[in-house]
Design a protein that fits this description.
The protein has 386 residues and is of the alpha/beta class. Helices cover 43% and strands 19% of the residues. The protein has a 6-stranded mixed β-sheet with strand order 1-14-2-3-4-5. It has a 6-stranded mixed β-sheet with strand order 6-7-8-9-13-12, covered by helices on one side. The protein is elongated, with a radius of gyration of 24 Å. The two termini are 40 Å apart. Bound molecules: fe (ii) ion. The site of fe (ii) ion has 7 residues, from loops.
Length: 386
Amino acid sequence: MHNPFDYLALVIIFLTQWCLSRQLLKAARRRYSRRAVSLLRAALAAFYILMAAAFSLGISVVADQFNLPAAFEQIAGAVAQIWLFGSTAGYLLYLGWRLLARRVWRSDPDPARRHLIRATGGALMAAPFALVGYGTFVERLRFRVREVDIPIPHLPGDLVGLRLAQVSDIHLSAFLSEKDLARVIDCANGLRPHVALVTGDLITDAGDPLDACLQQLARLRAEGGILACMGNHEYYARLEDYAERQGARLGIRFLRRQAVPLRFGRGVLNVAGVDYQRSGSHYLHDAERLVLPGACNVLLSHNPDVFPVAARQGYDLTVSGHTHGGQVSVEILHQQVNPARFTTPYVYGLYREKAAAYVTRGIGTIGIPARIGAPPEIALLRLRKA
Ligand SMILES: [Fe+2]
């Protein structure tokens, strides 16, 4: 946790869970025996102790202790997060509604209206769970193609119209099957790109099927080949070297502070790549030496925060992922509100300063396996003269 919003969210979650538990016990006392209420109290205490341990230590540490598979860890983590955030949001909505109803209909004795007010409160409590259900079962797998023109000053004539297909943040795991990834790859091949780009986070945890992911990515077809960079999840899972080796065998070139000049006619597209750049660290150390004068220079960096540094170093285009477009994104007063906005100014789409950057929403999910207002995408970047 590193920003005040995280601490505020934690306090709100703690308080709402406390109130919810108290109300649950109060309702139980009215209906059930003393023994049943004691049992419920013990179950609630055990549940919250487990939650606190999982969140403070990290669910992966708890799962590693008991040698549990990655899928268990991911599903347990998702259920816990869905409950905590869903019940917190639902309870806050319910409280707001109750406050409003008391002010407006303070002395209304109409039993039908009272029933309607209660039913509305119940529906509001359930609403966040319904939304997560929609994001999990509908929007999460609604892959789409996003075609974007990338304006680049002084673009060599032979590179105008060049098509780069980007697949990112696949997170092949309990929440994305190989079959779904195969659909994505078929779709990307249908775009007939000149170069295929993969910008990291192939998996979520060490136990995820990295080999299957690499095999699917190796099916990408592009005359300039498949060029990739590492994401933070390859780094966390300590699988960067393995992915690089296996990828090379399958024809995927992971660029780890390396560059590949690709010639198209008389123009050169110089694609460089770096490993995951930790937020707040000294970005792109020594990466300017990969810039090729006279070429169109493209940088693959999982983390989009490097963009201003990349532009200063001479890169014409930075291609990134990492944010998932917020994964859950809601428009309020013409502003997209999503969790990623608290961590980076580069959440989704095309950014232009001295140079250009494209940040894709990517394919998969982390944490809560839902996408709301941020559907998964395959990006097709078309180069054109600025
Ligand atoms: Fe990711």
